[in-house]
Design goal:
Blueprint (H helix, E strand, L loop, with lengths): L2 H5 L9 H21 L4 H20 L5 E4 L7 E4 L1 H21 L6 H19 L3 H19 L5 H32 L12 H15 L8 H7 L2 H11 L1 H13 L3 H22 L3 H18 L4 H19 L7 H6 L2 E2 H15 L5 H11 L6 H19 L3 E2 L22 H17 L9 H21 L14 H20 L1
Parallel strand pairs: 3-4
Antiparallel strand pairs: 1-2
Length: about 500
């Protein structure tokens, strides 16, 4: 039984759903501008919009049939709202709500909340589009909003990272636009289905744009620096939802026509292994999480038919991990091993780490079981190795020292050997309640996963991963090259990917 079928409750279609959809797509942009006029209400507008998206996504799960809208004939705009889209929209709503809760008591300006609304709206639009030109517009708006949020601190470093992201994004979207024009030339339509009869160069260019924008395989090497150097809430948004705006179109391509499916599945396995290889040996917490974003996107692509559930689980857990990592006393794992962190913070860190490792009772377990059950035979070994690497790398968080400070030693908090007391706002715990609570609730989506065989396998994988962390990893000394992350080499990676895609499509 598939997830969408399991969630369908046989409720009659809502007649006003098309009108509600138009309101849902346009409202974030209207509220973003309204926030400038009413700056005291900006965070309320953003928070309310995030929960509106959550409610809309839940509505899609109970609709008996997908909603298809064509607003401007074959020139676009075409929209497709189905349960698969619902998972991605639900991820966007929950992650945005959690990030806004985290920032609630901060001194963020109306500009920050306006750009967050723009980002939220453009991500929603990208999820809903079913034609290439509308998707191009949505991804371009998303790129500009993400650029402004990354550059928000106005430091030299932040501006450089933002410009680097914007340049890579714009260059690759130019490739995508040329591919879109070739698809239209062949079909006189921008619809995704036009890729079936499009020339090979058009398919290669469109896929290149989506793969780079999503941070897949070697073309995703722009991602670690961007996600790790952004402010904590922006990192959570980028890894939780922004990259998935290009992942869902890749999934749709894989489901729509046979030529793309093996390519997407192959990139899924390669990306899962590539990202986890870097993550296992990474010594910086935020960079390790960023490399794991690359790896987990590989899991999403490896089994397109069940990609939605894995995307939801990953979005919740990765946003939580970035918000927690931003409150750890250091980014260095070596430094964190020498000073105990506060137990409540460690508990939140451990819950998220257990979920992404596939531990039962959290949604990461069901998502991994469902993904593994829908792999092709040739994918199984690679994805199991990636799961082992995931358990190994997140053991770094789980085995960190932790404790509660003794009242008589509070004055020594922060000294070597003493517990670090972070100054966490109430908003942090609101964000954790949304994200970690979501992991527990979403665990019920695929309750059929709970068989003895399914429970035993991830437990063995996690035990092996912890064994590798304790006894094998300390004996290895591997210096990973970072030269490929340099700006000039990112362009070279695009060319390598384009050549590989041409070869795959022609084959």
């Amino acid at each position: 039984m598939t997830i969408p079928a399991a969630l369908s409750l046989g409720i009659a279609p809502i007649p006003s759903l098309p009108a509600l959809t138009i309101v849902w797509i346009t409202l974030p942009f209207a509220l973003g501008f309204l926030g400038y006029l009413m700056p005291r209400r900006d965070r309320y507008f953003a928070f309310g919009m995030a929960w509106f998206s959550v409610a809309y996504a839940l509505l899609l799960f109970v609709q008996p049939a997908p909603l298809e809208l064509r607003l401007l004939d074959h020139f676009g705009v075409s929209l497709l709202l189905d349960p698969l889209t619902g998972f991605f929209i639900l991820t966007n709503g929950l992650v945005t709500a959690a990030v806004l809760g985290y920032c609630w008591q901060s001194n963020k300006t109306p500009f920050f909340y306006a750009q967050t609304l723009m980002l939220h709206g453009s991500v929603n639009a990208a999820f809903a589009c079913s034609d290439l030109m509308s998707l191009y517009v949505a991804l371009e708006v998303l790129g500009v909003a993400a650029f402004l949020l990354i550059a928000y601190p106005r430091s030299d470093r932040a501006i450089w990272v933002a410009l680097r992201y914007l340049f890579v994004s714009n260059v690759v979207m130019l490739f995508y636009l040329v591919g879109t024009a070739l698809v239209y030339q062949a079909n006189h339509s921008f619809d995704f289905v036009g890729l079936r009869t499009a020339p090979p160069e058009a398919i290669a260019l469109v896929l290149l744009g989506l793969l780079v924008k999503a941070g897949i395989f070697i073309s995703g090497l722009w991602l670690p620096l961007t996600h790790s150097e952004s402010e904590t809430p922006v990192s959570a948004l980028m890894s939780g939802v922004v990259v998935k705006a290009s992942v869902l179109p890749l999934v749709r391509c894989a489901l729509l026509f046979e030529t793309a499916e093996p390519i997407v599945r192959l990139f899924g396995v390669a990306t899962a292994l590539f990202g986890v290889f870097y993550a296992v040996f990474e010594k910086d917490t935020k960079r390790m999480l960023a490399f794991h974003t690359i790896s987990q996107l590989g899991f999403v692509l490896a089994a397109p038919i069940v990609a939605g559930f894995y995307a939801l689980t990953h979005g919740l857990v990765k946003s939580a991990l970035f918000l927690i990592a931003g409150n750890l006393p250091s980014r260095s794992f070596k430094a964190l091993k020498s000073q105990a962190i506060w137990t409540p913070l460690w508990v939140a860190l451990a819950i998220a780490s257990f979920s992404i490792s596939g531990f039962p009772l959290l949604s990461g377990f069901g998502a991994k079981v469902l993904t593994m059950k829908n792999l092709e035979a040739w994918q199984v070994i690679g994805m199991n190795l990636a799961a082992l690497g995931t358990a190994t790398s997140f053991a770094k968080f789980i085995f960190l020292p932790h404790g509660l400070p003794h009242p008589s030693r509070l004055a020594l908090a922060g000294q070597p050997g003493e517990v670090i007391l972070p100054s966490l706002s109430r908003g942090f715990w609101v964000a954790m309640a949304i994200l970690l609570g979501g992991l527990v609730v979403a665990n019920g989506v695929y309750y059929e996963a709970y068989t003895w065989a399914n429970v035993a396998k991830p437990l063995v994988t996690i035990a092996l991963g912890w064994g590798v962390y304790q006894w094998v990893l300390p004996r290895l000394s591997l210096k990973r090259p970072q030269v490929l992350e340099q700006f000039e080499h990112l362009m070279g990676m695009m060319v390598v990917m384009l050549v590989a895609l041409f070869w795959m499509v022609l084959a």
